[in-house]
Amino acid sequence: MQNTKPHACLLASPGIGHLIPVLELGKRLVTLHGFDVTLVVVAADPSTTKSQLLKQVSSPYPLNLVLLPYKDITGKLDPSSHMVTRLIVIMRESLPVLRSTIIAMKVRPTVLIVDLFGTEAFEMAREFGMLKYVFDTSNAWFLAATAYFPTIDKEAEHEHINKQEPLQIPGCKPLRFEDTLEAFLNPDDPLYVEYLRIGIQIPMADGIFANTWQDLEPKTLGAMRDRDLLGRIIKAPVYPIGPLVRQVEPPVHRSKILAWLDMQPSDSVIYVSFGSGGTLSTKQITELAWGLELSQQRFIWVVRPPMDHDVSGSFFTLGSRRDDDTPDYLPDGFVTRTQKVGLVVQMWAPQAEILGHSSVGGFLSHCGWNSTVESIVNGVPMIAWPLYAEQTMNAALLTEELDMALKLRALPTNGTLVGRMEIEKTVRKIMEEKEGMAMRARVKELKYSGEEALSKGGSSYNSLSKVAKDCEANLLQVLKAKAQ
Ligand code: UDP
């Protein structure tokens, strides 16, 4: 018998930051709208296995998971290429196997949903007669800049990039030069060319999802719908469907970290983490360690070995340790001196669980969008420490529009060192002072607005329901045409 449920194929590009929101979208399509979902994940490195992936995403989920094998792109790119360029080329090289995967599916999907790095698969969707959606796993303002940039004239580009003037995006917050996307800066860099292409392909979708919600970014979302503003360029409908974050299951065993948090007072711990790939220089790690220690606040710090010339270096070996278990890149005796108030976790921590714990009252973050949304849904104010990708834009949004994060005076993205005194002062401010308290109250309001958006009848719930109806109507048409 012919399947009457829409079958959606979701394509996630390498990296946990892409996988998590795509997976959550897939779950919602299955559980709320009765879709069949096949989640196709492109491997980030040769050692990725399906069971590893399932563990990472805390299976089981009611969807099919397909792992596309890692594509070795050595020789296809300059070894010094930007990590995002590498990611895009891996996606491009994976298209043939995506094609054969779709062809081999028992029930051919009628819907293709890709993240921003998968828009080249649209051609395949067209060929197979599938509806095609793009999922911006970040916020609407970033989407606005990405889709708008290819349409600006040479003069406006010159003003922004060479004269360092703000980029005026119709109806949106202007994008200051110091917050702009790295991809816009150098027309000779392949990253620039790839971003232009992505910006051009976004409006070709049948719809655009974003991990945001109406009350979080009303102005930008409004501009995208307005045909006199950004809607003229982004012709496709934009569907805010957030906040989508990894759902935390109640743990079977309380981990050491959660057990430690259980013993701390409410809202007393600052969580410090730079996402899945963020790294600091040796000097910067020293300053951060001293800043945390001097602040005398409770903390959990996810540390990684220093990288002096790469803020996004991802896969590392653990550094050697000193007698007191201080990794050798932290100041001598740091772990011993701070053991009553702090926890140093090497490489990776269960972030969603940590942010969801009532003892956590602040988050010093690289402002990756998943981390940001996880902070909002748990009502935790932030200190913005952006490192790469669209994180400087996110930081500007959080500190200036949403008023839920403190800014650092030094801009880490310029390679400027953030000094220990500034860190000490800012950490105290977010954890103890009036300004921090006001931000905590503000972020709680955002948390409630996010809950409302996702609840039945809320704006994000309705957005996804609208898409689900379109996909069902399209399937019926396909079935009718087949029957004739
Ligand atoms: N994450 C985690 N533990 C870590 C570091 C990161 O669980 O030690 C998760 C985090 O909760 C988030 C994702 O990895 O869901 C990182 O995504 P984000 O967009 O914040 O940053 P990216 O790593 O993509 O820069």
Automatic annotation (TrEMBL):
<protein>
    <submittedName>
        <fullName>UDP-glycosyltransferase 72E1</fullName>
    </submittedName>
</protein>
<comment type="similarity">
    <text>Belongs to the UDP-glycosyltransferase family.</text>
</comment>
